[in-house]
Amino acid sequence: MQEMLLDAAQVAETLKVGKKKIYKMIQANQIPALHIGGSIRVPRQALFDWIQFKTTGVMVGQEGEQE
User: Fold this and answer.
1) What mean pLDDT value characterizes the chain?
2) CB neighbour list of residue 15: distance below 8 Å, 6 or more residues apart
């Protein structure tokens, strides 16, 4: 079973960037993250939803919706 929450190292590996970059992106609210005690965790699904939005401009669940 895959973990629901990823640490900064796992996010960095997924996005192929450094951990320092991930911490800066989290601090700037560019990546969705949770602060649990002294740890920062990124929900796996929120990361993949964020990637989809950044690549397609469409939020998950809004495909085909009309105003």
Assistant:
1) 90
2) 22
What is the Cα–Cα distance from 35 to 42, expressed in whole angstroms?
Answer: 9
Tell me: the pLDDT tens digits for 30-43?
999 999 999 999 99
Tell whether the model's pLDDT for residue 56 goes beyond 60.
yes
Domain edges within the chain: 5-56
| Alpha carbon separation from 41 to 6, 10, 20 (Å, rounded) | 5, 10, 14
| pLDDT, position 66 | 47
Q: Cα separation of 45 and 50, whole Å? A: 8
CA distance 24 to 62: 28
Name the amino acid, one letter, at 41.
R
Q: What gap in Å lies between CA 43 and CA 60, rounded to an integer?
A: 15
Q: 32 and 42 in contact (C-beta within 8 Å)?
A: yes
